[in-house]
Design brief:
The chain has 396 residues and is an all-alpha fold. The protein folds into 2 domains: 61-197, no CATH class; 212-370. It has helices at 3-17, 25-58, 60-86, 91-119, 121-140, 148-164, 166-211, 216-256, 261-271, 277-294, 296-326, 330-370. Helix 3 (60-86) crosses helix 4 (91-119) and helix 8 packs antiparallel against helix 12 (330-370). The radius of gyration is 33 Å and the shape is globular.
Length: 396
């Protein structure tokens, strides 16, 4: 077959399978150039994000109290706004009263947890001893058939391992004390920042607008205001989800007959603000108390209740409420919590959803500013009035 005939056949085959005969060199270079420019811009943006995160990590001792103060301020700001706008209280007085009320509520929560536990500590200690004895008797029977000598040797081995790792235990203890001290310092600093936010918060955006030049004086305060509203929605939805967990789990514990129902419900509400780990900790405490006080059957029932409530909370309540209040899809909420936990542990899980919501706020605002206005629909021309309309056509 001749060369022109082969080319015609190749062209015919290309047309049959829907492919062009050959690529256009100019279009290919243009596509590669656009891809290279986009890749370079993306790398620059990612590098800038990495630098910002690195700087935040270096200044975390200041950033973390600031974040905690903002979360507490969004929780207590509605009361402060009521005192300032409706009752016309001075800002400093309103902020001080709200701070005192907040500390009283926190102290009351601690008392609600501590007093019943202290009053029933003796009974719980006896139940724990009985539970250990029950486990020992169960281990002595089939299928394990552990004798007293086996248990004693296991205890001796455990004691020996503890003695050999005394140095690491001391290190862990000192690390725990350091964490406790840092937590106290963070709490005190966050409370002071919370007071100033409650007192001077409304002045911040006008002050920020005066400090920025040009269009930034409008854009940055607007984004900050939207971010504040979004953060408030997150805290309120999280508090509502924690309340649902506390009510349902507390009701289940009361039906089963587990002691310390009120402290366990309060603990469930508080730990709901720490996703995943908080629920695991509260559930572990509830199951442990049910085990040592009521036995294996009731402990398994409590475990089933907690798993059911946590599944409803994690897969139904929390995604629905947060997606509605934050403008995020439920799948985005679940993915954000998973990604935040894998990157930064408990803190990442706690901050993942609000960070994703703030990113969404910035994206929506930038998109609004870059979008072209919608063209007005073309209206049909108004019909001219009929000069003879309304005249009587009847004759006398």
């Amino acid at each position: 077959m001749s060369e022109p005939g082969a080319r015609r056949d190749a062209g015919a085959v290309s047309k049959v399978i829907g492919m062009p005969a050959r690529l256009n060199a100019d279009k290919s270079r243009s596509a590669l150039r656009a891809t290279a420019v986009l890749s370079a811009q993306t790398l620059i943006v990612l590098a800038m994000a990495y630098v910002v995160l690195w700087l935040m990590g270096k200044a975390w001792s200041v950033v973390w109290p600031l974040v905690v103060a903002l979360l507490l301020t969004t929780l207590t700001w509605p009361v402060t706004r009521l005192l300032r706008n409706r009752l016309r209280w001075p800002p400093a007085v309103a902020a001080a009263v709200v701070m005192i009320l907040f500390l009283i509520v926190m102290a009351g929560i601690i008392v609600v947890i501590a007093v019943p536990v202290a009053s029933q500590s003796g009974e719980l200690a006896d139940k724990v001893a009985d539970g250990i004895q029950s486990v020992r008797e169960w281990a002595a029977g089939p299928p394990l058939n552990f004798g007293d000598d086996d248990i004693t040797s296991a205890l001796d081995a455990a004691v020996g391992r503890l003695q050999s790792s005394a140095g690491s235990i001391v290190t862990v203890t000192l690390s725990g004390l350091n964490t406790l001290v840092n937590g106290l310092v963070t709490t005190v600093l966050a409370l002071f920042l919370m007071f100033f936010f409650l007192k001077d918060g409304p002045r911040f955006l006008p002050w920020l607008s005066r400090q920025l030049p040009g269009r930034l004086a409008v854009d940055v305060p607007e984004v900050a205001a939207r971010s504040w509203n979004t953060l408030g929605s997150f805290v309120r939805s999280q508090a509502f989800v924690g309340m649902l967990d506390a009510v349902f789990i507390g009701l289940g514990l009361w039906i089963v007959g587990v002691p310390l129902v009120l402290p366990l419900a309060v603990l469930t509400f508080i730990t709901a603000f720490v996703p995943i780990v908080g629920a695991l900790f509260a559930g572990f405490v509830a199951v442990l108390i049910a085990l040592v006080t009521e036995g294996w059957v009731d402990a398994l029932i409590v475990l089933g209740i907690i798993i059911l409530v946590q599944q409803l909370e994690g897969n139904v309540f929390q995604p629905m409420l947060q997606s509605r209040g934050l403008g995020l899809h439920a799948a985005v909420v679940l993915l954000a919590v998973t990604l935040g936990g894998s990157l930064a542990g408990i803190v990442g899980s706690l901050l993942a959803v609000p960070v994703a919501a703030l990113v969404s706020v910035v994206y929506v605002y930038v998109r609004e500013q870059l979008s072209e206005p919608e063209p007005e629909p073309d209206l049909p021309p108004a019909a001219e009035p009929d000069p003879h309309q309304g005249e009587s056509t009847s004759t006398v």
